[in-house]
Amino acid sequence: MISDNKCTMKIQASIIGLLLLGSTVARAQTDGFLFNYMGMGASTALVTDYQTIGINPANLGLLTPHSVAFEIGGGGFSLFSNGLTKSALRNFSIGNTTVAFKDLLGEGYRVETRINVLAMSFGMGKAGTLAVSFGLRLDQSFRMGGVASSLFFEEFDYEGYFDTIVTSPDGSYGVSYDPLSLSEITDSTQLNFKLQSAVDLAWGRQWYAGENLNLYAGVGARYVMSYAYVDFSSEAGVIGGQAALGLDLVNTPDFVNTYDVNQQPFQPVGTGFGFDIGVTAELYQNLRLSGALVNIGNLNYTLNTLEFNDIVLDTVYYDGIESTTALDVVSTILDEEEIIAYEGIESFSTPLPTTLRLGASYNVTNFLTVAGDVNLPVSTTARDFGAAQIGMGARVTVARFIQLSTGFTSGGGYGFNIPAGLVFNFPFTEFGVGTRDIAVFFGEENPTISWAFGVLRFKI
């Protein structure tokens, strides 16, 4: 494959294809993709029933008018980039290689998707409340370095790299007489991708009841199953990263020596356990102070595991790709040509995005509640949020069953956002929608497009 004199680049399949794998499925947010709290920007001291999962299990002990709650099919979506205006982000398309999309790659973006397949909680009297849930999450994020960006968008016309273009019956390719290594081409590039499901169990109860003080505590546990994981980085001439690929991503069964030919289509490539602990103090029935440490644990990858290495690229024919779907691109990269260097490894582990959540809420009246959150990263994995995030907001009830909320969030790599929500809260059911940034419909800078929805939430 390697030649001393020429380098041909399969631009779309290797560079942008890799980048479309980007993921950071663990970006912390104050709302947890809950439709009835996203609009406030705070939830740690407010959540009840199964919505406490992953946020604060202590609140399972809070007294509520209902003893059973369940939801089917709620979830949300979020897309953020600090390199685009709201107009460009609204028209975002993976396959649209416009100047706006080039800016998007240069600045980086992240996408988060959550689906709560089923969630349920049961009150057990003095024994507290038990909650269970099953959900899916798919997240990707990436940032592309300047050389890689130019190669993708200018293709073989990029005079800063290619010396000539060769056309043959086998296809066209650009030739460089001074080829660069993959680390040089992709410098300042970061990406990762995660596809996971999780089964959660949480329990909380009241531990002290006083005249002006009530104390609650709870614990949670989750079993996480990962079906695809890619983490790639290229900084200062050093390539690093690991991957574990499932879901029949690669057609060639021996692409690495850790490939399992007997793997089932939806068999996880990695599994692990996570744990949550939380406490809440309720003072004078109106004020709540809460703290929780969530996502304590690790994921262990043992199937189809590999690590990325540096390589000098040459004689790779350019024939494009037929799909810009991230999973299809992975298969193209690893199956067709040796675009990148990788080798099988026995296993690797990644920490879960452990987060310390601190929150407070105050019921000003029966119709007005204010709340605030502070989220602090504890684990420092490469793609988790690396800075504190704060959120504050208010919720007002009008006409007895209509709840309007707004506030602000800042930090955690998301910029400054103004969330908003509309919820219809009836005695037996609740539905509505929330967004992390209502300002995307008015301003132009640093937009966040996000929605959380719930239509089948019931309370008995």
Briefly say what this structure is:
Helices cover 10% and strands 47% of the residues.
Fill in the keyword field for this structure.
single chain; 460 residues; mainly beta; 14-stranded antiparallel β-barrel; two-stranded antiparallel ribbon; 6 helices; 21 strands; elongated; disordered N terminus
Give a written overview of the molecule.
With 460 residues, the protein is mainly beta. Helices cover 10% and strands 47% of the residues. The chain is built from six helices and 21 strands. The strands form two sheets. The protein has a 14-stranded antiparallel β-barrel with strand order 1-2-3-6-7-9-10-14-15-16-17-19-20-21. The chain has a two-stranded antiparallel sheet with strand order 4-5. A hairpin with a 2-residue loop joins strand 4 and strand 5. Helix 1 packs across helix 4 and helix 1 packs across helix 6. The N terminus is likely disordered.
- Strand arrangement, largest sheet? 1-2-3-6-7-9-10-14-15-16-17-19-20-21
User: Structural class, judged by helices and strands?
Assistant: mainly beta
Number of helical segments with 4 or more residues: 6
List how many beta strands DSSP finds.
21
The average pLDDT value, as a whole number, equals 78
Largest sheet: 14 strands, antiparallel, barrel
Share in β-strands:
over 45%
- What ranges have pLDDT less than 50 throughout 5 or more consecutive residues? 1-28, 93-99, 314-327
End-to-end separation in angstroms reads 66 Å
Compressed to H and E, one letter per element, the order equals HEHHEEHEEHEEEEEEHEEEEEEEEEE
Global outline: elongated
What is the quaternary state of this protein?
A: single chain
Task: Supply Rg.
Answer: 24 Å
Helix fraction bin: 10-25%
